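2024-03-11 09:14:02 DEBUG pipeline.ingest accepted 1 chain
2024-03-11 09:14:02 DEBUG pipeline.ingest length=300
2024-03-11 09:14:03 DEBUG pipeline.predict start
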Amino acid sequence: MSDRRSYRGRFAPSPTGPLHAGSLVAALASWLDARAHGGTWLVRIEDVDTPRCVPGASQTILAQLARCGMVSDEAVMVQSQRSDAYAQALSRLERAGQAYPCACSRKDIELAMAEAGRSRERHRPQVYPGTCRPERGGLHGRPARAWRFQVPEPPASVVQWTDRRLGRQAQNVAAEVGDFVLRRADGLWAYQLAVVVDDAHQGITDVVRGEDLADNTPRQLLLQQALGLATPRYLHTPLVLAQDGQKLSKQNGAQALDLEHPGQALRMAAGRLGLPSHEGPVPELLSAWTTDWRALYARS
């Protein structure tokens, strides 16, 4: 088993509202994985998408976690205070010829894809056609809107990795995503760059998060490679679905957790993770599930 110094995990919520049932599943899984490995568990507030953030939500989330017996082992990191680090990473990528400015709007991209006879798949990101790549003439005199990562050509664009729950995974990032955004047209930092820079800064060895983020992993692996950063291990947890079959989220009306009885909320989250039900106060529940988790997922 790993010791506390070698394993470092994290839970990284966006403060767009209080925790709901789906986010508690991810929080509990990441906490249990850290404890099962005798490791360090961190909380990071991912608030780079400031227009979606709700005032006071960060404090609410931390209070909800504490009510469930989960408190960060170190000071909570806040992404909105990390802009300089993201700027340095972007500058490094630009100097290496792996990032470039882009003038395209969403409408421009849709038109380019339509002209190429390619339609957007539902629930899939719009594949960027590379219009502003330097070798294609760059901005063509238009003002820059965003910055993009230049995805390598196949076969280097085919990223393979092993998820600790899902097994072997692969994605051709060039074909399925294209050159993705690092800094948005509104000047805000994109999630992909921020999460990679912060995971490296905090020395994260293991990322445990919801399965909806699994298809983000190849982009993050490419960025880690480009920036010379270590690659964590990944484990993507089952999703909690709404009545319509979609991922439970704040956007589709997920209700905030009722933590009048935190043990009950935790038992529901544990059940979604395939863990047995236990009785007792929160500390006893967490201890029992740590043992259960160790049997399922703890690495040697």
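2024-03-11 09:14:41 DEBUG pipeline.report The chain has a mean pLDDT of 91.
2024-03-11 09:14:41 DEBUG pipeline.predict end
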